[in-house]
Queue: 2 jobs
Job 1
Amino acid sequence: MKLKYECNRREKQGHKSGSSSFHMHDPEAVFDLLALKKGDCFLDLGCGPGDYSLEASRFVGNTGVVYSLDRSELLINNLKRRVAEEGIMNLVAMVADATRRLPIEDGCVDICLVATALHIPGITRNAEALCNEIRRVLKPDGRLAIIECHKEDVSFGPPQHMRLSPEDSEGLITRYGFKKTGIIDLGYNYMIQFGVCRDNDK
Ligand SMILES: C[S@@+](CC[C@H](N)C(=O)[O-])C[C@H]1O[C@@H](n2cnc3c(N)ncnc32)[C@H](O)[C@@H]1O
């Protein structure tokens, strides 16, 4: 998988509009596991250029909605422009800080994706606030998917000391009301899925 989705592809396609993990692995593998359905509500937190959001908008269809949130006004404006140019009607892009109250109603999200953003120090440090907000906006049976870069020394992406191993990510998220439901190795990256803990899970 690492050979198929070379990082220079990511650099060519991602850097103009913000860094993205989307082209570092096979997006199909990610979306197969996310198993989005028509009508779903998908939240892309720290969406960057919005590649996952744009792909998700195809899966959820006209009856679904994609919320794309990032703290970068520039990236959100670029995404809004792209959405308008492509006539996409089911994607709402908003500037928001993932560690503060999100501009989203309680209990309406089926799947929240946090792709290569958890390792960012301002987010890692505020993992409790992040998890509380994600739990607030998720439906009771909603899911959280975390994509992160393996903790290895490579010439692209975050430096090794900032990276989170799968165990680091799992530890951070399960501390704040989530339980792990699955993990997949994506080559350079990995994705872990979580569900919300119920009282009888504790
Ligand atoms: C490495 S990029 C990943 C972008 C996208 N998730 C992807 O993988 O294609 C990390 C993104 O997180 C955003 N970010 C960092 N801290 C944030 C915060 N506190 N709230 C919202 N977004 C944040 C950055 O602006 C950046 O776009």
Job 2
Amino acid sequence: MPSSRPSNYLLNVEGLTVSFDGFKAVDDLTFYVDEEEIRVIIGPNGAGKTTVLDLICGRTRASAGQVWFKDHELTALKEHQIVHAGVGRKFQNPTIYEDLTVFENLEISYPAGRSVFGALTFRKTKAILERIEEIAETVFLADVLHEPSGLLSHGQKQWLEIGMLLIQDPELLMLDEPVAGMSPSERKKTAALLQTITKGRSVLVIEHDMGFVEDIAHKVTVLHQGRILAEGSMDEIKADPRVVEVYLGH
Ligand SMILES: Nc1ncnc2c1ncn2[C@@H]1O[C@H](COP(=O)(O)OP(=O)(O)OP(=O)(O)O)[C@@H](O)[C@H]1O
Ligand SMILES: [Mg+2]
């Protein structure tokens, strides 16, 4: 068992396994994500993709294996410690506060807002205001900054949630089906967004929209029945007959 960071990759997943009542949803998974890489995980429904994110962010406990993120072995940490170590995770459905404005949602996500003064009462320093405005600009919400977020479109809510993660400046950002329910133009903008946020950060994305995957992926990992079926560039994956058979052909 390695006792320290085993390589120069940002994320090292080694032998990761989880069984639910004897069923191995993720089975001896090993993969590595580079610094500033956009990695996409694809695969059929039930392949174990969401479970992989659940394991990395500590929501689900691994049965075996290790996840090294920088100098942290994540399977030994609790969910909030993993967030603190620099891993942000977006779930399949947006989890924003609909009664609060876009600004307030970003404000309560600002790390100091919670740790020092409590959720909504911390002093708004100029630096914090500027950071909120900058993030709102990045996620295309600058012109709706003071709208209640319940009034946003589904796509805008997804962007707000990405903004709420970005404001914590994670070094690894994990997104589960970020463009589900988005219009074609929103998908294009989201692809552009992901390209702009990889400075000093890696992104691990699950997606079914192959056009979107093609736009963003540096490398693709194909999951099937909890195991890696194939891994490589988008072109390599598309040309792999096993991937076509279990996934792309459908
Ligand atoms: N907590 C759990 N308890 C029992 N079984 C689970 C649990 N979480 C996931 N599973 C099972 O593990 C398998 C993988 O599920 P997972 O949600 O990871 O698939 P997925 O690849 O994300 O699929 P989709 O593309 O439909 O989102 C499924 O058979 C699912 O029913
Ligand atoms: Mg899923």
